Amino acid sequence: MLGLGAIVVGLLAVVTGRWPRWVRGRKGGAAALAAAFVLTLAGGATAAPAGESDLARPAEGASATAEPAPTQTRTTPSPTPSPAPTPIPTPSPSPTAEPAAPDAAVGTALAAVGDLEVKGRAPKTGYDRDLFAYRQYDQDRNGCDIRNDILRRDLTGISIQPGTNGCVVQTGTLDDPYSGTAIAFTRGTGTSNAVQIDHVVALSDAWQKGAQSWDAATMREFGNDPLNLLAVDGGLNAQKGDGDTATWLPPSGAFRCAYVARQVAVKSEYDLWVTGAERDAMVRVLSACPEELLPERTNVPLMPGAERASAPAAPAPAPSPAPVPAPAPAPAPAPAPAGGATDPRFGTCKEAKSNGFGPYVSGVDPEYGWYRDGDSDGIVCER
């Protein structure tokens, strides 16, 4: 404040030219004014900053050597970090997830697919086709092998080899389900393979999907079961090999639903499992025909009436008529025994025998002449 007062006095003296007594001349006023500025600046430098003077002033009664109270420092709280959002894991897609399919009615092949167990394919170790006794077992006990049973079921216009009790198919026509074409069949060394019998669920496929644990009787039944057998084009049967639904389907698209339905029926019947890819393929095919039913097992009876007649033999020349022999002269009646001791005479041998008489021998018994010797053996009224 002293500095400010000196400035005012100095300015007044400089402007008016009137000086207080303790100032002499304008130079003295200028010097006073300069001194006033110095005092003002010095006072501003030593003044306590506003707001902090109470904290810097020592408490009343305190010793001059007491340390000043510590300056209070305002701390700004650190913001609480927001928790990082927890990432939601994306589930890995299952490689065998079942494709979407329409609701399937009970009894349909599509519904039955859902009941099949899904597992991986087992090793083929130990597989032998002969374990299934194909054509070595008469499944329906009709005395005929299963190949000919299936040919009689699946072929049309058939003829049966004579002397086989209606069993062996000699000729016929196959409406091949795999290719959709007609194949003429003739039994023979170079022709029979045109039509082959296919195991719809291949024996090797069954072995790798549950059949390894079967007993011999079950393997034999499976190998000769009409439910699992179809007469088909021989070349396509070889092409299929042991493929399942995921690896092979018939070229004829019109038959694929029935083909897959039969595979499902067989695997359901024998508790065979399927792979994930196989199950998915079954669903894809059957979703196009959700009303396709499971097929039933059918057996075909023997057909003796379809035996092909042998080529007619040349007619034998008519034999010359045998000469008619002259009738033998009637034997002379035996002389009546003395005393007339003969049996009573009856109208027929039947009456004579019913009354306990006969037989009579020619040339011995006079009664012989009374009756007819039908077999000309010289004896009548034999008992």
UniProtKB/TrEMBL annotation:
Biased composition (Basic and acidic residues): 370-383
Biased composition (Pro residues): 78-96, 314-336
Residue stretches making up the Excalibur calcium-binding domain: 345-382
Region (Disordered): 48-103, 302-383
Biased composition (Low complexity): 68-77
Annotated InterPro entries: Excalibur_Ca-bd_domain, GmrSD_C
This protein's name: DUF1524 domain-containing protein
Organism (species): Georgenia yuyongxinii
Organismal lineage: Bacteria, Bacillati, Actinomycetota, Actinomycetes, Micrococcales
